[in-house]
């Protein structure tokens, strides 16, 4: 997602994995066939579901880095707004225009007036594009509420205690919501009183930035902790989905996606695991430079990957057939990984062009001395 100034190749590796998972999520297969769950597909779909939560955790990891005290909020807020406008909002509008003209030419519409101009209007005026750009609108809400969020996201005893209380209440509410869903109850509509799942992940990302500091030069321990946390959450989610299908026939139930409390476990575990894996790669060498460069293109990859998926549908169908309709876990893994790499590779080429033609020139127009670190 949006590029940052300070480069940490472990974080850039998390971005890349998140991008691959987003591509897989938008090209995934149904988990039920002939009235039965295909376990291999379900397992991989459960793995894929941490795509957007990873991006949210990465956003939270850096979002409050300049905030050391309440006095910094007023100084940093305008910079955050300007950075969003130049690095996210304007490039997204340019992408929408490109996608409109791309579909106009590929679908051979009789007139440019017949193109989907409502797509642009939905994004600008209603903040409801109706596709993967919903994340951009969510990010915009984070910018809008930045002063409120930054007030609690500071590393001092009082703010830590306040934040932990609020985060605990929000997560407890999410757990109660899952329990009601599991037992088919509707006693409390807790979603109206929660921060929102995306905001919880954002705050968890900030908590991870504090947690990971404690593991300098202890990569193995950090990696092991991540694996244990992830596997715990994965088997909880996998078991709950199987149970909900066998008991109620629910196919796309909430225990797969980010709207469930076990996703806090899996996304956190995956983040720590990938970050820990990145720590095994020595800094300032060719692999880390490649990772950092590709990571800087992930925002544009995120923008364009849906167009690439639409253009490569025939290849997708061929791969599904080649891997026996992805019935087993290994066939599903082979399909998802191979197709995701194809889409990722093509999107990366487009993203590199977009980076130098649009992103960098727009950022330069808005460039100004950044606020002094507190």
What does it look like?
This protein is mainly α and 374 residues long. It has helices spanning 9-25, 39-48, 51-63, 71-106, 117-125, 134-144, 146-152, 157-182, 197-212, 219-248, 262-279, 286-296, 298-311, 313-322, 329-365, and strands at residues 32-33, 36-37. It has a two-stranded antiparallel sheet with strand order 1-2. Helix 1 crosses helix 12 and helix 10 (219-248) packs antiparallel against helix 11 (262-279). The protein is globular, with a radius of gyration of 21 Å.
Largest sheet: 2 strands, antiparallel
Indicate the proportion of strand residues.
Answer: under 5%
Distance between the termini: 25 Å
State the secondary-structure class.
mainly alpha
User: What is the overall number of helices?
Assistant: 15
In terms of quaternary structure, the protein is single chain
Task: Show unreliable segments.
Answer: 1-6
One letter per element, helices H and strands E, the order comes to HEEHHHHHHHHHHHHHH
Mean pLDDT: 89
User: Can you count the beta strands?
Assistant: 2
Strand adjacency order, main sheet: 1-2
Which of globular, elongated, flat, extended, rod-shaped describes the shape?
A: globular
Helix content: over 70%
User: For the CA atoms, what is the radius of gyration?
Assistant: 21 Å
């Amino acid at each position: 997602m949006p590029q940052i100034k300070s480069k940490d190749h472990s974080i850039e590796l998390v971005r890349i994995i998140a991008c691959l998972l987003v591509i897989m999520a938008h090209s995934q297969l149904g988990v039920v066939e002939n009235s039965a769950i295909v376990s291999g597909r379900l397992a991989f779909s459960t793995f894929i579901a941490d795509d957007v939560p990873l991006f949210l955790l990465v956003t939270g990891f850096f979002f409050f880095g300049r905030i050391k005290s309440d006095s910094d909020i007023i100084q940093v807020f305008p910079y955050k707004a300007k950075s969003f406008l130049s690095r996210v909002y304007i490039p997204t509008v340019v992408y929408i225009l490109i996608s409109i003209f791309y579909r106009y030419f590929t679908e051979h519409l009789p007139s440019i007036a017949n193109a989907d101009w409502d797509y642009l209007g939905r994004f600008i005026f209603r903040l409801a594009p109706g596709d993967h750009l919903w994340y951009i609108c969510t990010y915009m809400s984070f910018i809008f509420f930045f002063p409120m969020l930054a007030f609690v996201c500071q590393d001092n005893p009082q703010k830590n205690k306040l934040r932990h209380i609020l985060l605990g209440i929000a997560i407890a509410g999410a757990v109660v919501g899952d329990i009601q869903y599991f037992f088919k109850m509707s006693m409390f509509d807790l979603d109206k009183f929660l921060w929102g799942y995306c905001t919880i992940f954002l705050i968890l990302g900030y908590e991870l930035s504090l947690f990971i500091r404690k593991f300098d030069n202890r990569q193995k321990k950090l990696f092991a902790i991540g694996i244990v946390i992830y596997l715990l959450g994965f088997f909880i989610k996998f078991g709950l989905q199987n149970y909900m299908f066998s008991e109620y026939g629910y196919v796309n139930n909430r225990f797969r996606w980010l709207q469930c409390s076990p996703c806090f476990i899996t996304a956190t575990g995956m983040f720590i695991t990938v970050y820990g894996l990145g720590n095994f790669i020595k800094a300032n060498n060719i692999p880390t430079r490649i990772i950092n460069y590709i990571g800087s293109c992930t925002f544009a990859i995120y923008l364009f990957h849906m167009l690439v998926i639409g253009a490569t549908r025939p290849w997708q169908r061929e791969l599904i057939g080649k891997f026996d309709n992805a019935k087993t876990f290994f066939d599903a893994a082979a399909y998802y990984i191979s197709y995701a790499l194809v889409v990722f590779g093509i999107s990366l080429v487009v993203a590199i062009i977009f980076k130098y033609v649009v992103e960098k020139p727009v950022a330069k127009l808005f460039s100004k001395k950044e606020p002094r670190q507190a």
